[in-house]
Amino acid sequence: MFFIGIDIGSTAAKVVVMDSEKIIEKFTLPTGWSCVETSDNILKKLEDMGYIKEDTKIVGTGYGRVSIPFAHKTITEITCHGLGAYYLFKQDCTVIDIGGQDTKIITLQDGMVADFIMNDKCSAGTGRFLEVMGNILGVKINDLIELSKNGKDTKITSMCTVFAESEVISLIGRGESRENIAYGVVNSVIERVSSLCRKHAKNSLFFLTGGLCSNEYILELLSSSLKGEVYSDTELARYAGAIGAALTAKKIKNR
């Protein structure tokens, strides 16, 4: 029997397949322009891999969860990221999820979501913010982060992505180096995320999920900003939402 969690985010869809004991398969697909099309592609891939059986249970989550008609249940990404983070970290913590369109700070208590807060200023402090700024500088997100290591003394002050974009263009016009601009962009995200944590965190243990979880430099910057170690699982933490959905699918079977 298989339990499948599907997390369709704004930029990428993550899929996890579990059996009764462990994760046996995982994959990602770009979300693209249509969550419905992405859902269809996921179903076909799962069918081709032999995971769609009569007794398979499927739970959907994320930005595009309403576009998964073959899911037996849908659930919010807050709950799923909390469950997935606890599965990976195995202790109560403050979960930091830097997503494509929003950032979520989630407090876990006894392995369950006790409280959460989300950013409310456009997409500042998110993966989308980094993507937009990277596009202006002509680099991908990971390259932007690498550039930032060699930058200094530049700040991006705008809380809105549109205004921050104008700031970056002005800096380019003034002849500021790409390294310094990248430094300002990356540290702006770290500052926004850390500010949310300081407002909300009730636990000094931090666990990072989302697409940036495999970047050691982001973990280092967050740890420094929060004055405490930020942990992650560089292989699986980006799948936290899908893991939480798959764990929820197991509960459907037991009812």
By CATH, the architecture of the domain at 1-77 and 238-249 is named 2-Layer Sandwich
Specify Rg, calculated over alpha carbons.
19 Å
Poorly predicted runs of 5 or more residues: none
> How many strands appear in the DSSP assignment?
10
Structural class: alpha/beta
**Quick one: CATH class of the domain at 1-77 and 238-249?**
Alpha Beta
Distance between the termini: 15 Å
Major sheet attributes: 5 strands, mixed
Q: Superfamily at the CATH H level of the domain at 1-77 and 238-249?
A: ATPase, nucleotide binding domain
Q: Number of helical runs?
A: 8
**CATH topology-level name of the domain at 1-77 and 238-249:** Nucleotidyltransferase, domain 5
Q: Mean of the pLDDT scores? A: 91
Protein name: CoA activase
Domain ATPase BadF/BadG/BcrA/BcrD type: 4-249
GO molecular function, one term: metal ion binding
Keywords: Iron, Iron-sulfur, Metal-binding
Describe this structure in words.
Pfam families: BcrAD_BadFG. It comes from Fusobacterium mortiferum. GO terms for molecular function: iron-sulfur cluster binding; metal ion binding. It is a single chain. The protein has 255 residues and is an alpha/beta fold. The protein has a domain at 1-77 and 238-249: Nucleotidyltransferase, domain 5 (2-Layer Sandwich), CATH 3.30.420.40. It is 42% helix and 21% strand. It has eight helices and ten strands. The chain has helices at 35-48, 77-89, 127-137, 141-148, 161-173, 178-200, 216-226, 240-254, and strands at residues 3-8, 12-18, 23-30, 57-61, 73-74, 94-98, 103-109, 112-118, 206-210, 230-231. The chain has a five-stranded mixed sheet with strand order 3-2-1-4-5. A five-stranded mixed sheet has the order 8-7-6-9-10, sandwiched between helices. A hairpin with a 3-residue loop joins strand 1 and strand 2. Helix 2 (77-89) packs across helix 8 (240-254) and helix 4 (141-148) packs across helix 6. The longest helix has 23 residues, at 178-200. The chain is globular and about 60 Å long. It starts with a strand and ends with a helix. The mean pLDDT is 91.
